[in-house]
């Protein structure tokens, strides 16, 4: 039987023996005659041979197995350690080859050398290749639930850290720099590879217990004494920029302190931080909605109104201001040119961020929560040796999440802190739980990591032993100060007359079905009515036929366009969004009728 051969889905010919052809192809690839990135596989559903050379395919290395034995031997490994050979030498000798997902369909890959059978074609380099860079940095991750492990990757990217050593010269937006970053005590094999970029948290003492209910629902309780000593203290940077634009007719913006005569003048207090050139002074403190750079735009004929024509054309204030809730010290001011050759002013604000209620924290195992309470050191539990924990973590978050790796890291961190060494928490290959327990026992502590703690309210010891240890905690970029939002009155959208959405637009808070149920359960009917009154409007409805009546302001009358009724017409208060729906239905040729009933 002849088998069709395709190269990148293009037919090139036939072969009589597909298996023999594929084996010869692979032998030539291992000898370097064919490039290593070219893959081949037999499609059993179509009975064709596919050769793939296109870009964008994901390749991964595997150890070649022949006659039930891997070609990579201990001698090769020793030579690699001594530097006598390199990885590329293993590729040239055909010991390691790169395969894509398509070719892998025809392979039989063993995870460990003892799993090799007669039909095994390849061997995994290591069981650790299943991890990405971020997941490989999580200690004891083989003891965690896989979904929780994937979820724990994101906090590592969101943690406060020193992301670049030249951050003082950069104008990145929304950046947080941790004051005192540390390396983790419990680490994995990949830490040594990425350690220059992995000072993203701090090692803290954590007690797994409850305290007055302030750490329910994943919240944590933090020691105020630790915060005062600099725990998780960071600095937040936000950048702004404004351009002096040119317009047709030789007009251009002017960077200066605006005169009170200009349109949209903001008031004298808003410009108090500006110097003579109209740019804010370095190291001055700027409050929310204060001007950073004063800019006046020339009058233009676009968007003229009868009012502007009557009063005459005036220059307009288009200054750069901080947003609502944005404040800080002016860290840096740079005056440069844009790509279009216009004057460009870039400003960076600096704001000290000390942990406060509502800030988000996480460990590397995906257990994240907000700061629920900051407690004085005198109100924190203490051990018999006088040790006061930095954080109190709720034990209710452990069973359902199945993050056993978190408990092991607490145990390993305790051993590392007491012995003054780093603990290897590499999945499958790191230090075992039994070794850590024995070492902790030899140090004079209970092998299970629990200790006697004393109640700060009564001074009595707790009747149960409390699990306490050291773990690597991260402070995340989600801070309460950046998310705090409230408003009374403000801008509304033109179409629905409802409040705008979003903090930057001074929008209202969304009040949805679940929030509705809360107020309904409390019987707060008047408050509930007020929550839905942001777009109240009045419409006229004909009581005779139920149609929307028309208000004629010229003739000062209200009438029904269907039946001509002018007497029995009622005023009804409804949401403007509902009125909009009725009008849209009418525009489609659907005439809605409303059935009225008296409220009382």
From TrEMBL:
GO CC term, one of those recorded: DNA-directed RNA polymerase complex
Gene Ontology molecular function: DNA binding; DNA-directed RNA polymerase activity; metal ion binding; ribonucleoside binding
Keywords annotated in UniProt: DNA-directed RNA polymerase, Metal-binding, Nucleotidyltransferase, Transcription, Transferase, Zinc
Enzyme class, broadest EC rank: transferase
RNA polymerase Rpb2 domain sequence ranges: 6-66, 87-119, 507-595
Gene3D superfamilies registered for this protein in UniProt: 2.40.50.150, 3.90.1070.20, DNA-directed RNA polymerase, subunit 2, domain 6 (2.40.270.10), RNA polymerase alpha subunit dimerisation domain (3.90.1800.10)
Annotated organism of origin: Nanobsidianus stetteri
Family recorded in the similarity comment: Belongs to the RNA polymerase beta chain family.
EC number: 2.7.7.6
Superkingdom, natural source: Archaea
Domain DNA-directed RNA polymerase subunit 2 hybrid-binding, chain residue ranges per copy: 135-505
Protein name, UniProt field: DNA-directed RNA polymerase
